Amino acid sequence: MDSTRSNPSMLRWTGLAAALAVALGLAGCNKTEEQTAGQRVDEAINKTEQAAQEAKKKAETAAGEMGDATRRAAAGAAALVDDAAITAKVKAGLAQDMDLGALKIDVDTSAGVVTLKGEVKSEQARERASQIAQAVSGVSSVENKLTVSGG
64: domain CATH number? Predict the structure, then answer.
C-alpha cells in the first residue's frame, strides 16, 4: 500500500508544496521586467537600512523608558534613605532633651513629613518635641500626635 495515500497529513503537505511551486512559477512568468542582481542587492540594502533605522528608534525609545524607570527607582530609594536619616536625627534630638529623653516617643517619617506619637508630661514638652523635629534638616513638616498625660 502507498504510504502517502494512507496519511492525509502527508497528502496535504505534498499538495501545498505543489501549489506553492506552481504559484511561484506563474509569478515568475508574468514578470515583464527582470531585476538585475545589482538592483536586487540595492533593494535589499535599502530595506536593511530602513529596518536598522526603525530598530534604532525603538531601542532609543526603550532605553529612554528604562532610564526614566531607573531614575524614578533611584529617587524612591533615596527618599527612603533620607526618611530613615531624618527619623534617626529626630530620635537623637529627642533623646538629648532632658524632659523628653526618658519618654517613649514614636517617630515616623514619610517624604520628609515627621509624625510624633506617644505621651508627654506637659504641653510645653509636646511643643518642644515639635521644635526639635522641625529643626532637623530635610523635615518639611511635623504632625504632632503626642498626647499630654495627666500625671
Answer: 3.30.1340.30
